[in-house]
Design brief:
Shape: elongated
Strand order of the largest sheet: 1-2-9-4-7-10
Strand content: 15-25%
Oligomer: single chain
CATH class of the largest domain: Mainly Beta
Number of domains: 2
Number of helices: 10
Low-confidence stretches: 164-169, 280-288
CATH topology of the largest domain: Jelly Rolls
Radius of gyration: 22 Å
Number of strands: 10
CATH architecture of the largest domain: Sandwich
Order of helices and strands: EEEEEEEEEHEHHHHHHHHH
Structural class: alpha+beta
Mean pLDDT: 89
Distance between the termini: 47 Å
Length: 288
């Protein structure tokens, strides 16, 4: 029987809150080796290289073989076990960050089907191996790992299009397209009607799919995004309040100040003054 081994790396700190590699590695498991049942606080993808095993989650069990990938979401109860006769060898990558949920929604996995068989195992293995080879605690190492992670996820997205193309009419796709429109156009004088037209749905339908997928209305998402971008500009300290307001799509400074205070608890002038005095306000969380 092949020798058991494990090579792994875990990130203890990240400079990149948008997307970061939490852990990665390669392992040839002992017969019957099991992880779980338990939950993770990050997204996790395994690629089976050899042997076989099982995944249990959501009351269902999947038999996995070489070329299969399995996907575990944060806070999802799961267990996976190496076969007693032909224990598996796999590589894995765990990731998290503000953009992780959006990226995960574009991968060929779902809650009902957390397993995907790749037609390009060598390509995906090389992509995951690059993440592991770039490992390290320096900022440049972390940057390289995130870069390779993006390339790995891009390869998986290609397989989503090739094997299980998502419908452009799905509610999640409408939301993703609307978010992209907002992120590229928030600094202009756009309305929710503009957002709805950009994705080809009515304003009322956009409201429903936003509430279902994001948990907030499109106007609340747009407002929060603008306010969080305003916070970044105020922390930089190089623009006046009026200039910040215009830069994030508010063309009435007094209205901007009212909305900002409602969102952050202080007017923008006090937020900026606190930053300059060293009493740093809480960092704004980007809307998801």
């Amino acid at each position: 029987m092949p020798e058991v081994y494990k090579q792994s790396f875990k990130q203890n700190y990240t400079n990149n809150v948008d997307l970061s590699v939490f852990n990665c590695g390669l392992e040839r498991c002992a017969p019957g080796h099991t992880w779980g049942p338990g939950i993770r606080d990050h997204y996790l993808i395994h690629l089976i290289l050899a042997g076989k095993g099982t995944l249990q989650t959501g009351g269902t069990s999947w038999e996995l073989n070489p070329g299969d990938l399995f996907f575990v979401r944060p806070n999802q109860l799961a267990a996976y076990t190496a076969d007693a006769q032909q224990p598996w060898e796999y590589c894995w990558v765990g990731f998290n960050g503000i953009s992780a949920h959006k990226l995960a929604s574009m991968l060929p996995f779902s809650d009902e089907q957390p397993v995907h068989h790749t037609l390009h195992p060598d390509t995906l293995y090389k992509a995951m191996d690059n993440i592991f080879r770039a490992r390290g605690m320096r900022v440049q190492d972390e940057t390289a790992m995130v870069g390779y992670l993006y390339l790995f996820l891009a390869d998986l997205m290609e397989e989503t299009d090739e094997q299980r193309p998502h419908s452009t009419n799905s509610s999640s796709q409408y939301v993703l397209n609307a978010i992209k429109y907002i992120q590229f156009n928030y600094s202009h004088d756009i309305s929710i009607d503009d957002v709805a037209r950009s994705v080809g749905v009515s304003r009322s339908h956009l409201y429903r799919v936003f509430m279902s997928n994001v948990g907030k209305s499109p106007i609340n998402y747009l407002t929060e995004y603008r306010i969080n971008e305003a916070c970044k500009l105020l922390r930089a300290g190089s623009l006046s309040i009026a200039e910040v307001a215009i830069s994030v799509g508010f063309f009435d400074q007094f209205y901007f100040s009212r909305v900002f205070k409602r969102a952050k608890g202080v007017p923008p002038s006090k937020y900026a003054a606190a930053r300059q005095a060293g009493a740093c306000p809480a960092e704004p969380a980007d809307p998801v």
